[in-house]
């Protein structure tokens, strides 16, 4: 696997030496603070969303062990996404990094996987759809083309899992 | 890869996809395999539309769109329905790689177009029997 750091062109703490004087003045209070690469912030945000989806897959598997065959691909995909993003995101949480607005944190709800198998699968499929949208938006916003390519691929992966999980849910009618 | 090179590669992929889907569609009986025949027709329509969209994008950028080849090699013999499904899945996976490359080489509207096309191809491939993968269109991961 390629180093994720190179995918985002990590320059997490690169001082910006080309500030215009007026902007330099306006940012005097921030002068001592390093600038964070926007793609690193993006990686941290997507990582939070991918980890949350992975947690939901695990919670669903814990409630329905019989779904292992169905959800192994989803688990493997999101675990791979998380592993790659962990290489790109900083170890320490960033103030502005966090889950995106479109997939607001609901840790209690995530843990409370529905007892009905079909409802649990439909819920998971919807979360895969949500994550695909987050990944797409992130791919659009990424400054690095290489990182955008990987994020777009993650979106496609989540869309694949949404489709597969929904098919099983509908079959479980 | 420049944006124009990425779009030209995308157009070349669409030319191939349109050709292959045209051939596959002619080899699947609508009465014997109605579901597969409908999926092939839908894919043909989608890729033909994308071919025309990328052509328009290139023309708008004052670039000369790459022409289609006279013919293309099919991914397999395509003599059975299973062959045709596999060929269609492979075409979608090849297109996914081209779209992913375009995502990385373009920006704004063209990048959004490529992002959406990548997701569509990855999902469409499943319908033809492809396995899901963690990084569709990015074979080195």
UniProtKB/TrEMBL annotation, chain B:
Classification via InterPro entries: DUF4439, Ferritin-like, Ferritin-like_SF
DUF4439 domain mapped to chain residues: 6-140
Pfam families, per the entry: DUF4439
UniProt protein name: DUF4439 domain-containing protein
Organism of provenance: Nocardioides iriomotensis
Lineage, opening ranks: Bacteria, Bacillati, Actinomycetota, Actinomycetes, Propionibacteriales
